[in-house]
Write a structure and sequence with these properties.
The protein is an all-alpha fold and about 220 residues long. The chain has eleven helices and no strands. It has one domain: Tetracycline Repressor, domain 2 (Orthogonal Bundle), CATH 1.10.357.
């Protein structure tokens, strides 16, 4: 999200709103709370956005586009290096998860609040998000799924869809809770430890896809 494009007031509103939506969820935030955090008046918010929903959608759309573009760019580069061969499964898992859990500097202003906001939005989807998710999120997810599927030709399609759904859901949960891992685990895990999250997610995802059966 290029805050400069929104002007000083718009940038303040977007930054404050993203942090509040990430912490409290959509229903837990009012426009008055956002204006107070941003240090602007309600009229300034109404000038840029007609209501809370439009503001929320603006932020979420920008972040989903950043995430999806990062995944697609990294997958395209990996496939170019592979020269027609399948990209290693571990590499696909990494390029799918890392932009969300440990975004690159090129993902402008995509920080911990962005990660948490997307995690919450994807774990607790609101009814009005369906068109945005279909347009800005699902295509990149499907494209990465196709790359993973090349490694599992013998796995029945329905089983693959189930496993991919579980893996994607686990990643969203991690994004939503990474900031709060220390109290959730009685101190066993550190808050915002993206390296540990990525390492363990990679092991979990690869094992989920390649397991032949469970008894």
């Amino acid at each position: 999200m290029l805050l400069e494009a929104y002007g000083e007031t718009g940038a303040k509103v977007l930054t404050a709103a993203e942090a509040l939506f990430a912490e409290h969820g959509y229903d837990g935030v009012s426009l008055r709370r956002i204006t107070a955090a941003a240090g602007v008046n309600l009229a300034a918010v109404n000038y840029h956005y007609s209501d809370k929903q439009s503001l929320y959608l603006e932020i979420l759309t920008c972040r989903l586009r950043q995430l999806s573009q990062a995944r697609l760019d990294r997958l395209a580069a990996a496939e170019a290096r592979a020269s027609g061969a399948a990209v290693p499964l571990e590499e696909i898992v990494d390029l799918f998860a890392e932009p969300l859990l440990r975004p690159a500097e090129s993902m402008t202003a995509f920080g911990p609040a962005s990660r948490r906001l997307l995690g919450r939005a994807l774990v607790e989807p609101l009814p009005f998000l369906a068109p945005i998710l279909a347009a800005e999120f699902q295509p990149a997810v499907a494209r990465c799924g196709q790359a993973i599927r090349r490694h599992l030709p013998a796995l029945p399609p329905a089983d693959f869809v189930w496993r991919y759904s579980f893996v994607v859901g686990a990643l969203h949960h991690a994004a939503a809770t990474l900031h709060d891992m220390k109290p959730r685990t009685s101190g066993l895990c550190a808050n915002d430890d993206a390296d540990a999250a990525l390492r363990n997610f990679r092991l979990f995802a690869v094992a989920s896809f390649t397991a032949s059966h469970f008894r």
